[in-house]
Amino acid sequence: MRTKPIPDETISRMFPYLRSLICLSEKKSTIVSSTRLAELCNVNPAIVRKDLSYFGEFGKRGIGYNVNELLPAIRNILKIQNFKKVILVGVGNIGRALLSYSSFPSEGVQIVAAFDNNQEKINTEINGVIIQDIDDVEKTIKNENIKICILATPVSVTGDVAKDLADMGINAILSFSPCRINMPKNIEVKCIDLSTELARLIYYSHNPQQ
Amino acid sequence: MRTKPIPDETISRMFPYLRSLICLSEKKSTIVSSTRLAELCNVNPAIVRKDLSYFGEFGKRGIGYNVNELLPAIRNILKIQNFKKVILVGVGNIGRALLSYSSFPSEGVQIVAAFDNNQEKINTEINGVIIQDIDDVEKTIKNENIKICILATPVSVTGDVAKDLADMGINAILSFSPCRINMPKNIEVKCIDLSTELARLIYYSHNPQQ
DNA sequence: ATGTGTGAAGAGCTTCACAGCC
DNA sequence: GGCTGTGAAGCTCTTCACACAT
Fold it and tell me: What's the whole-model pTM score?
């Protein structure tokens, strides 16, 4: 379908571009150059132009990009015109924090349901979301046509839960479990492993880059 | 000092190797091949060998790696033989979750102090850590010789706080603010931007890889 | 003159493939 | 035979540099 393969890094930079464009739009800027956008996002100007060129020719030579055209174009690329519904599985410390995370609403993401297997947590409420029994997750996924799940379960069950969720129709998972998750290529998985990140920082703390 | 530049990805994989080695050690395995270790960490065997070779010749040809030799060697590379002290700045939702995050203690990381500027939070306790006034952070950094900071402040202040921390002696920062942080190269910064990760997943959810 | 779009060059990481040792 | 260590090849993403449009 796609003509050229789009680098994953390009996808990862689109949302920061969008944030900067929203900011520019609020300041009534109508035109932005790749150089200015690159400054705002702390990247190289050439990469801004190349990233955007994967999706079309949004700029005008000699002028720059029209903020009010580029902004909806990126929203459309990322498919976040409306609120995007995601579910949360695993309501431990991280899960609770994510339910209360105040940036999500303003950035177009909505956690519509949360699930756990701990009977003491079930039916309690956090930030307006009632925690449901994990056995009821399939019903929600099917009824609400949910495709994206935030996974914050203990390592011991993460692999199995991920597999089950994929079978139920989830095709993108953001995991906070400190373990790799094996999934077919059509299921996108991103693992955020806090201990590994800290170990990396400890290394660089002792071996600074010069 | 270094002969060859070590890829950042290599550093990031060392902690997962360590985890697997600890697991093998607990199961009384004494020898492990690059193939087995690669399976456990979900990577390619050649990359395990290449990664380890940046730090020395730990294996024996025809045999494999000795678990009880490799394990302390990696601990030594990552400098996590003892508990590593880190501080937390910003005790919002994410900060609170990190203070309660149960995996850190078992993985050699200890949040020894937490700071905020909200008078209502100061002097309250979370998981055994008393939240202190941000104005007292320099004293702790100097007295305890802290080099690593977890930053979970609102975007509006993140840049300034990061700069201040660097001036006080911090040289590695793990930030959860949804913004890029500009720092000199000798200060290692890792930003975990949850909204950007979710935006990326939303994209792939609509455009699955085949 | 100014700034985009893009082929080509460059840089960095991964994978291959095999020599060398057990 | 089995498995590591590593130069070379391959791949991917970034940066350069310039043709082209305004």
Answer: 0.93
